[in-house]
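Record type: ASSEMBLY
Status: queued
Input:
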Amino acid sequence: MISIDDFRTEARNWISQNLEPLEHSNTKILRGVDNLSAEDLPPERELQRKIYQAGYAGISWPAEYGGQGLTKQHEVVFVEESANYRMPDFGVLTGTTFLVCGNTMLAHASPDFLSRHIPRILAGDELVVQFFSEPSAGSDLAGLTTRATRDGDDWILNGSKTWSSGAACADWGMCLARTNWDVPKHRGLTWFAVPCNAPGLRIDPIKEINGDEEFCQEFFDDVRISDAERIGPVDGGWNITHSMLVFERGAGRVVSETAPAGPGELAPDLVALAQRLGRTSAPNVRQLIASAHIDDYARQQLAYRIAGQIRKNGANTGMAAYGKLATGTYDPIRAQIALEIGGAAALTWEKGDRDGIEPSIDYLNSRVMSIAGGSNEVQRNGISERVLDLPREPAFDLDKPFREVERGGPGTEWSGKTSG
Ligand SMILES: Cc1cc2nc3c(=O)[nH]c(=O)nc-3n(C[C@H](O)[C@H](O)[C@H](O)COP(=O)(O)OP(=O)(O)OC[C@H]3O[C@@H](n4cnc5c(N)ncnc54)[C@H](O)[C@@H]3O)c2cc1C
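Status: finished
Output:
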């Protein structure tokens, strides 16, 4: 295997000769401002293909499926070396495709499935969205009612999924469906890969508070899927869901093994905001910046510590929940601090003024991580049950066949086809 140093030299040379340097150091993507549509994707796919063909996509993924079979450390090196260059931007689909769905497929899908999908994912030909939440199944995900019914070598899917980030631009969805109503709720679920253009699948964008339409609701009306697109065993989907949630909570992220040297720069975005408004000498502003800086440092150290623990002991949903809970707790606090520093000036901006819009849009987006991928309360439950070994939450339906579990009220399911 190529040494880390040689890999760094090769990657640096290739990057400098083939990728475009970034023009601005502030590359923060603002959800609700930097919105992507399907028309924006072809050049991003082209760039992804170029990186794939050069052997820099899927650096730590298995070579038999188009990856490079190298280590996470090689991947860290590539991320470091490419940090100031333009990389493919698939919006939220970058995370769902490469971090969450790709890693989950690699952990659970059959070799035949992986050889069909993983090379296409790495080449930018397949962007994958997560179809798991439903109108009446979010935190209680195992209570979902989208059904998959066996029909020869195929499955027929009926039901509805919602809050699917990026679905309008995706090529495939990883979909969790109920395949068995006669066993308790966690034991009758199965994962499938569904093409987003499958006949019978309707994808409706949902307007969000930040102005974007990144979320979608999907309606499955007799959608036919080959059994070859099943991921993992029939009725064995819950175990796979755990893997997916661990990846979604950041366990697969590329994190350096070297401890950060220190607290880093004093909250640069907040200092820039205070400077722009001439408020750097105001005592309350200085105090707010100091408090954000302390929290930034604590958060960075926590992320490093969690990554170290996961490297040492492996990941589980409880351990991964710490980082997710920290983000879900801290994002709203930090967004509030920016608004307090900016006051009325943070709430108005000239059209096209990116710096001006940032505090407001960050504030609107700041609740995302306290809900998406499992709410803060659900993360706390995970930590208490899986890390601290506290008693499980009482539940009335864990041993009952799902068919016998009373579900929701009238109108909580999309159609008669979804009920047991
Ligand atoms: C930005 C964003 C992106 C998302 N992307 C996707 C996606 O790509 N694909 C997808 O499938 N889904 C996605 N989701 C959906 C997300 O996973 C769910 O919103 C989330 O799991 C919460 O479910 P819910 O909205 O049904 O809330 P509910 O489950 O109805 O919860 C409502 C409230 O009750 C609390 N609560 C519920 N159960 C408990 C409990 N046992 N103990 C304590 N408190 C509890 C919750 O914390 C919450 O405050 C996304 C959501 C957001 C906000």
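Annotation: Residues 130-133, 138-139, 163-165, 368, 371-375, 377-378, 381, 393 surround flavin-adenine dinucleotide (CB under 6 Å).
Annotation: The domain at 249-387 is CATH 1.20.140.10 (Butyryl-CoA Dehydrogenase, subunit A; domain 3).
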